[in-house]
Design a protein that fits this description.
mainly alpha, about 0% strand
């Protein structure tokens, strides 16, 4: 049971003992009065465990089987798919191999298999930005062209 669940339980037990009203418990928990009534009924019927969500700790019914994940990673590890980003990889898995998964799921698979790295984990930038000038309008200009700007009147100034 998490701390939030314990806090919820304390508020519900106060409401059960009539130390606070159900409306006050609802405001404290950020729920509707009707929902607080439902929680109090469940508390009476099932005890303290009624505060914890019934599906906590169980796997989702929508979870994709690990066998399919291994197959997809094996396919994407092939040299033909090298350099594919998650969106394109998802389209190829769906179109050519019949593996239905969202782009985000494929992205997670690729990151776990070290086939793709997100923007934050990429290497350092190739070009570094120049330091800003200290004064407004300050600019350094260099002219390295070989053009005879002074038309022979003076020495070349490059």
């Amino acid at each position: 049971m998490t701390q939030a669940d314990r806090d919820r339980l304390v508020a519900l037990k106060k409401a059960k003992k009539k130390l606070i009203t159900q409306r006050e418990a609802a405001e404290e928990l950020g729920l509707s009065v009707r929902h607080v009534k439902r929680l109090l009924f469940a508390l009476k019927k099932h005890g303290d465990k009624s505060v914890v969500h019934g599906l906590r700790g169980r796997t989702s019914n929508r979870k994709i089987d690990e066998k399919i994940e291994r197959e997809a990673v094996k396919i994407l590890s092939a040299p033909a798919y090298e350099g594919f980003r998650p969106t394109l990889a998802t389209e190829y898995l769906r179109g050519k191999h019949g593996i239905q998964a969202s782009r985000e799921t494929v992205r997670q698979w690729m990151m776990r298999a070290k086939l793709w790295r997100g923007k934050k984990t990429r290497g350092p930038a190739v070009h570094s930005w120049r330091a800003r000038r200290s004064r407004l309008g300050e600019l350094v200009q260099w002219d390295t062209s070989e053009h005879d700007w002074l038309e022979g009147a003076a020495k070349s100034c490059t």
